[in-house]
Amino acid sequence: MLVVKFIMIINVNVKSNSSQEKIVKINEKEYQFWLKEKPIENKVNIYLIKFLKKYFKKDVRIKFGFNSKKKIIEVYDEI
Known about the structure:
Distance between the termini: 10 Å
Number of helices: 1
Structural class: alpha+beta
Oligomer: single chain
Strand order of the largest sheet: 2-3-1-5-4
Radius of gyration: 12 Å
Strand content: over 45%
């Protein structure tokens, strides 16, 4: 059985098709993320998840906002 321990829920505002890739922490629960990927065929969401996994060194998933620039992300550990 898979047990999940939630660490935090964050809001991410995504700016796709940017000239740079960076993440800026606005406050404890809000981040701004610029990436070079274009919002075509879910590429932004896939890249965002990979980037945030490396950034937090935890598992992440998109809870809301799959088709939006504003996303709600869950950061968690598997126990």
